[in-house]
């Protein structure tokens, strides 16, 4: 199946976790197409070449949204992309069937550790509690959103010197393997 990775990092050159995950993932799935939104910004009111973005989505079977978790959601750049590209008549509405039947896999990194994502802890809720807007976006467009593949605690790794770098490399490799496994399970189910 055709895998399209939408890289929603607003400053991909400064990314540590997201970049390491993408590099590891592409070793497993060299056939995947990566669209880095920060490199696709257009000088237009929509902010993107909407037709080109829609064509890329149309062509994919499995769409991966890969992003750093920003304020409990996708980064603003990615939200602008969704707002501009997921239009009525394309993604929703009676004639908007272009995304129907596609699978959406959310692949994200958080700064906070997993233990912080729980009642009574700094983030108060588990990660899944922040997913309904994304799940409903997928649902309205007729896409099935799978459970997110998440790597938590990247801030400590990034600030953690040599040990942190090693932990990040290992976490990125594990994330890439989990992401590839989710995609392989979709492919198996659809075969
Ligand atoms: C504007 C902004 C908002 C952030 N919001 C969150 C958040 O809501 N929850 C969280 O756990 N981390 C948050 N972080 C931390 C990022 O998720 C973390 O730095 C990122 O996942 C690391 O990936 P990268 O190395 O690819 O940039 C935020 C960071 C920034 C810059």
Automatic annotation (TrEMBL):
Keywords: Oxidoreductase. This is NAD(P)H-dependent oxidoreductase. Gene3D superfamilies: 3.40.50.360. Signal peptide: none annotated. Residues 1-178 form the Flavodoxin-like fold domain. It comes from the Bacteria. InterPro entries: Flavodoxin_fold (IPR003680), Flavoprotein-like_sf (IPR029039), KefG/KefF (IPR046980). It comes from Sutterella massiliensis.
